[in-house]
Design goal:
single chain; 348 residues; alpha+beta; Nuclear Transport Factor 2, Chain: A; 2 domains; six-stranded mixed beta sheet; five-stranded antiparallel beta sheet; 8 helices; 14 strands; disordered N terminus
Length: 348
């Protein structure tokens, strides 16, 4: 929730160009183990993935993405996969989007892999990506952003790992000025998109389900969305007040965070220190909007929201900020386990 002044996130690599801590596994339930029958075989704990193993999967995904190999993603993506870049979409929409991408990638490098344990079957991988190339989508060619900090949420499916969500932000060197988004271009993009939008043909309404050009259905919005919006609003209020108490109560101990300039912060103590430091000044108003949560399990939510603050952080003017967060349920309470922050894309 810091450093939210004008960093333009280029969307050409928004889904798969492919914070974190050293991997940990949940502590065993000693009481439960002691109460089990003496002759009952103890079920071995599921093995945690090695950072390099998940990084290898992201490398494969990058290669498939750069060639528009949508078939690869039919097995690489979980059926619960969610994309928040633009309209919220599920696996079918992500695969369809990837099929239209073509890239000329001269070189790529993947470094600094780290893995954050969400629960026994869900982990977040973060890494640094460095690329030299261009990509085209719908006929428009753009240079691939580089370097970037990427994050991918993986879930265990049988004996393999599948991707549920991916996000990335540009890495900005310390002390470098943050580029500002061009509001006029953003407005022009909206106008152009609206102008080029095909007119609705009601006569084809009955065929929408089988029309290949029809937008893919969005994942169902979770019944927990409103509660998480309220919780996130409270988090922004704590950020404004520099109140560590709220964060200490509402983050898991091994939480991870990727900032809008590509920093990775791990562990509750360091995240709380980051979000309550004195680098942010003059903040009198904060707010959240456009919340959308998808339930991945009864105890895990993938939440996306737009936050906003006035004032400045690190000398940069604050503004809108998109946040994607993983919440987990501990007892009756939802707690923040991971979050990545992005500046808005043009036109959003």
């Amino acid at each position: 929730m810091r450093k939210i002044g004008g960093i333009l996130f280029l969307s050409v690599c928004a889904y798969l160009l492919t914070g974190c801590t050293t991997t940990t596994t949940p502590a065993s339930n000693t009481a439960a183990a002691n109460s089990a029958p003496a002759n009952a075989a103890a079920k071995p704990a599921a093995a945690a993935p090695a950072p390099d193993a998940l990084l290898a999967l992201d490398k494969q995904a990058t290669e498939a993405w750069t060639t528009g190999n949508a078939d690869f993603f039919k097995s690489f993506l979980s059926d619960k996969a969610v994309g928040f870049e633009g309209p919220v979409t599920g696996k079918d929409g992500i695969v369809k989007m990837i099929s239209g991408v073509k890239c000329d990638m001269k070189s790529s490098a993947f470094d600094e892999p780290k893995v954050l344990n969400i629960d026994a079957d869900n982990y977040v991988l973060t890494y640094k990506g460095t690329f030299d190339g261009t990509c085209s989508d719908n006929g428009k060619s753009m240079k691939v952003p580089s370097p970037i900090r990427a994050a991918t949420l993986y879930t265990r499916s049988g004996d393999k790992w599948q991707a549920v969500w991916h996000g990335e932000v540009p890495i900005v060197a310390a002390g470098a000025p943050a580029p500002k988004a061009d509001d006029k271009k953003a407005d022009d993009s909206k106008t152009a998109a609206k102008k080029d939008e095909p007119k609705k043909d009601d006569s084809k309404a009955d065929n929408k389900a089988t029309d290949a050009s029809a937008p893919a259905a969005a994942p169902a919005k979770s019944a927990n969305t409103d509660a998480l919006v309220k919780m996130h609003q409270a988090g922004w209020e704590a950020f404004k007040a520099k109140d560590p108490t709220w964060f200490n109560a509402n983050l898991v101990d091994n939480a991870g965070f990727v900032s809008p300039i590509g920093d990775v912060v791990t562990g509750k103590a360091d995240i709380v220190k980051t979000w309550t430091n004195e680098d942010c000044k003059g903040i009198t108003k904060v707010g959240v909007s456009d919340g959308y949560s998808v339930s991945l399990s009864p105890t895990m939510e993938l939440f996306h929201v737009k936050g906003n603050a006035d004032g400045t952080c690190d000398g940069h003017k604050n503004g809108d900020l998109w946040q994607t967060a993983v919440y987990v349920k501990q007892g009756d309470a939802w707690k923040l386990a991971f979050m990545l922050e992005q500046m808005p894309m043009p036109g959003m």
